[in-house]
Amino acid sequence: MAGEGFNEDYPVEIHEYLSTFENSIGAVDEMLKTMMSAKVDLVFAYTFNSMFWVYLATQGVNPKEHSVKQELERIRVYMNRVKEITDKKKAGKLDRGAASRFVKNALWEPKPKNASKVANKGKSEN
What we know:
With 126 residues, the protein is an all-alpha fold. The chain has a domain at 12-90. Helices cover 72% and strands 0% of the residues. The radius of gyration is 32 Å and the shape is flat.
């Protein structure tokens, strides 16, 4: 796996599966690095602009009337979008088939009136 050689610690039959698994882990690792890099960049940009907001306030400039306010809002929107994406991945998935069966079995269905009479007739004839 790590080297080109063959390792005898596992059966030959699963070598292809292990190679595929290793490639999948590599892809997930790259995706996580990209996502974490984006989060770090957003936090850095937000922190830097917040510090500039404080600097403007200490210099007697109203930061609410400065373009830094729009920049902070823009970064906040991107941070919320990243949070929504990560929350969607964590959210549970609905199994529609199971939900349908659950609802169908939970609903009450009346028995036909003559079904109990037919069942009783069969018992009395024996």
